[in-house]
Every structure is written in structure tokens, then in C-alpha cells.
């Protein structure tokens, strides 16, 4: 390939990247505007899993305004995620074969489904006991008055993190279909995956008690085992396709 062709290819890649980024930013702006309109209802949604007697406050004049914008931006990011993932996939798709592109299209709905499943798991299973523990710990010594921005930051960070982690089986299956990951390697590293699940649970979980951390670690281990099973199926199909 000549120098001019290389420069044209590099320039075309930059133009494609800019186009994808512009579309992603536009999508994020639009979803953030929509979230801003409904931010009050999103607040009520985030507060619902907490104990009924929780007392949320703000101590700065701009505290509620900044938190309002944070909620709108985070909600906008979640709503825009399908478009962001799609734009990212489309940017790398020219380097993939027709069969690999088909895997991308099949993986996209599952990526969103698993994110929503993780989000729901965090909202209904993890947030209620975590907030109850944090708000009741040593409650006979001090009465908790929680800053609204602190509560929102912890809950949204937890929900988004759990949602992203739940996408592990889809990503590993996709990589196995491409031949990047082999199920034997996953099985061989099972012990380290279990250790990593508890370390990741300790990072994600806002509490220090082992019960809440186990609520995160055990599903992560189950997801890893599911990833091994799906990787075996995907890798077997890849081998059969290569032989045919």
C-alpha cells in the first residue's frame, strides 16, 4: 500500500471516528434532556429502595441543583447506552468479517438485556439491604442525615457497576465466537475468577459486611460459570464452521 493510500485510510478512519463520536454525543445530549425533564421521578425511583425513615438533606445552596444535573446525566447515559454501544460496534465493524458482524448484531440486544438484568438485581436485591445496613449501623449513637448527592452517587454508581458486570457472559461468548477466548482458559482460571469476584464485590459494594458483599460476589461467580458454558458452545460452533 502506498503512502498516499495509507494517509487516506488513516484520514477516513479519523473521519469515521468523528462521525460516530458526534452521533454518540447528540444521542447523549438528547437522552440527558429527556432525563432532565423527568429527573424528579427518577429521584423518587432511586429513593424508593431505601428505608422509609431515611432523611435526605443538602447543605449547600447549589447542592440540589448539582445533584439534579448528576441524576439527569447518569440517566441520560443509561438511556443512550444502546446507541453508544451500537456506534462503537459500527466503528470497528469494517475490520470484521461478515460472520463476525452477524455476531455483533446478535450480541447487541443481549448486551442491553443483561445490563437491565444487572440493574434490576442491584435495585431490588442489593440496594435495600445495603442502605438498611449503612443507615442502621450504630444508629443508637448518631442519627443519620444523609446528603442527597452522597446517596444518589452511591446508588447510581452501584446500579451502573452491577449492570456492566452482568454483561460478562455476553462479552465472553462474543470473544469465544471470535476465537479470542477459549473455554479451557476460562476453566483453568476459575480459582482466580472466584477471588476476583470477591475483590470486585468489595470494590462495588458500599458496605463492609460480608453478607452484602456475598450478594454481589455469588452472582458474579454464577455469571462466570455461565460464561464458561456459553463459551464452550460458541467455541464448538466456531470449530464446526471452520471445518465446514
What order do the helices and strands come in, and which of them pair?
Blueprint (H helix, E strand, L loop, with lengths): L2 H35 L1 H9 L8 E2 L5 H30 L5 H39 L9 E2 H18 L2 H11 L4 H6 L1 H15 L5 H34 L1
Parallel strand pairs: 1-2
Helix pairs in contact: 1-3, 2-3, 3-4, 3-5, 4-5, 4-6, 6-9, 8-9
Mean pLDDT level: 85
- Ranges with pLDDT <50 over ≥5 residues? none
- Helix vs. strand class: mainly alpha
Using only C-alpha atoms, the radius of gyration works out to 22 Å
Overall shape: it is: flat
Quote the distance from N terminus to C terminus.
Answer: 33 Å
Largest sheet entry: 2 strands, parallel
Strand content: under 5%
Sequence of strands across the biggest β-sheet: 1-2
* Helix-strand string: HHEHHEHHHHH
Continuous helix count: 9
* DSSP E strands, number: 2
Helical content (DSSP H or I, runs of 4+): over 70%
Any descriptors?
flat, single chain, 2% strand, 2 strands, two-stranded parallel sheet, mainly alpha, 9 helices, 81% helix, 244 residues
Amino acid at each position: 500500500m502506498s503512502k498516499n493510500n495509507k494517509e487516506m485510510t488513516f484520514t477516513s478512519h479519523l473521519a469515521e471516528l468523528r462521525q460516530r463520536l458526534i452521533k454518540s454525543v447528540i444521542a447523549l445530549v438528547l437522552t440527558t434532556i429527556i432525563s432532565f425533564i423527568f429527573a424528579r421521578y427518577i429521584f423518587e425511583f432511586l429513593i424508593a429502595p431505601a428505608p422509609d425513615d431515611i432523611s435526605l438533606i443538602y447543605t449547600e445552596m447549589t447542592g440540589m441543583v448539582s445533584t439534579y444535573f448528576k441524576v439527569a446525566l447518569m440517566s441520560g447515559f443509561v438511556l443512550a447506552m444502546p446507541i453508544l454501544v451500537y456506534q462503537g460496534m459500527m466503528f470497528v465493524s469494517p475490520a470484521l468479517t461478515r460472520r463476525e458482524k452477524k455476531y455483533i448484531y446478535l450480541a447487541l440486544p443481549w448486551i442491553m438485556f443483561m445490563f437491565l438484568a444487572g440493574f434490576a438485581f442491584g435495585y431490588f436485591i442489593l440496594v435495600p439491604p445495603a442502605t438498611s445496613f449503612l443507615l442502621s449501623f450504630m444508629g443508637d449513637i448518631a442519627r443519620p442525615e444523609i446528603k442527597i448527592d452522597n446517596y444518589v452517587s452511591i446508588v447510581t454508581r452501584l446500579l451502573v457497576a452491577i449492570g456492566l458486570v452482568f454483561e460478562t457472559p455476553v462479552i465472553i461468548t462474543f470473544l469465544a465466537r471470535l476465537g479470542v477466548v477459549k473455554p479451557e482458559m476460562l476453566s483453568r482460571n476459575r480459582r482466580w475468577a472466584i477471588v476476583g469476584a470477591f475483590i470486585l464485590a468489595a470494590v462495588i459494594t458500599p458496605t463492609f459486611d460480608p453478607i452484602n458483599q456475598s450478594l454481589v460476589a455469588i452472582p458474579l461467580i454464577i455469571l462466570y460459570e455461565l460464561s464458561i458454558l456459553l463459551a464452550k458452545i460458541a467455541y464448538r460452533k466456531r470449530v464446526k464452521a471452520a471445518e465446514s
